[in-house]
Amino acid sequence: MRAVGYRHQASLDHPQYLLDPQRSRDIQQLTAPQNPLNPQQFLDPQDQLNPEYLVDIELPDPSPGADDLLVRVEAVAVNPVDVKVRRRELPPPGGWRLLGWDAVGRVEALGQRAGGFSVGDRVWYAGALNRAGCNAELQLVDWRLVARAPQSLRPAEAAALPLTSLTAWELLFDRLRLSQGADAAGQVLLVVAGAGGVGSMLLQLARQLTNLTLVATASQPEGQAWARRCGAHQVIDHQLPLRPQLAALGIDAVQWVASLSHTDQHFDSLVDLLAPQGALALIDDPNPAAIDLLSLKRKSLSLHWELMFTRSLFQTADMAAQGAILQRVAELVDDNRLFSTCRQILGPINAANLTAAHLQLTGQLAGQLAGQSSIGKIVLEGWD
Known about the structure:
Blueprint: E1 2-6, H1 15-19, H2 21-30, E2 55-58, E3 68-78, H3 80-88, E4 97-98, E5 103-110, E6 122-125, E7 138-142, E8 147-148, H4 155-159, H5 162-175, E9 188-192, H6 197-209, E10 213-217, H7 221-230, E11 234-236, H8 242-248, E12 254-259, H9 263-273, E13 274-282, E14 302-305, H10 310-313, H11 320-334, E15 342-345, H12 351-369, E16 377-381
Parallel strand pairs: 9-10, 9-12, 10-11, 12-13, 13-14, 15-16
Antiparallel strand pairs: 1-2, 1-4, 3-5, 3-7, 3-16, 5-6, 6-8
Helix pairs in contact: 2-12, 5-6, 5-11
């Protein structure tokens, strides 16, 4: 089977990608759909892209274990976790590491215990961090993490949703334990970085399934408009002090916070804004020195971390909850209550296009450091 992987140390961490806002804008412009996909064009003339960063390879077709589905991958999305794993993790000597944790494809074969699916079903999933990712023509995935894909979306549109939908759902309903459909008069959920991949889905889910007042943060007009489209009742700028902006909206305190990016920069403000016995949930990796846990005590605030891969990493008894969540999300999509956050299709799945996607994500991360908004998801579809 064809696949894209890596086996050696290689990096895209040029200081310009991480620190220079203009470089971030240049990368995003160069990866616009109308421009040809040549990763080398994103680099300065004196730099050379390491050809071993991602490589087109041929691997043996995998065989499903008892709990596996064998899926022929049709489309994948790219997430910050792909870049993080590439930076931090190398495979065993002689092996290949395959990235990718957002996929849509068709079932080719089933293991003995894999139930609820048939050969030919189009499915979607995020998968498990400790297994081979979806950047391959064929992938093995535990059936409990899988659901049938929405019928109303093409594969590329659907591929943008699994990881962020699972993260958003688990944060809202498993970590914060919000009630679906309950009366929530006067209760506010503040979503920091509401225009990004997770924020886009969290706002949609919260708007459709709760009665909370939703306030999102985004720093640029495009991101602010996108957050409103996704369901935010109000949008404020996280580059400015938060309390005066909320006060101008008549909001003195918030009961819930979903902090999706740069929590360490906002932590003190979020603690200040939370009402007594409120809850703060986060998904990022803040600097521990910036997180003063004792500051939560006076108000009896609770802190919740969400990692979408926890269930599969620890083989929890409720692993099948992820398949059930994705099935519910698919139903909401087909009922026109949720929409795809796919914002860009870079072309077929290959090393050059995936490297271009990683470069664009690197530029987006630099843009976030400079206060720019990251909007929606990057997707690849089909094979050469």
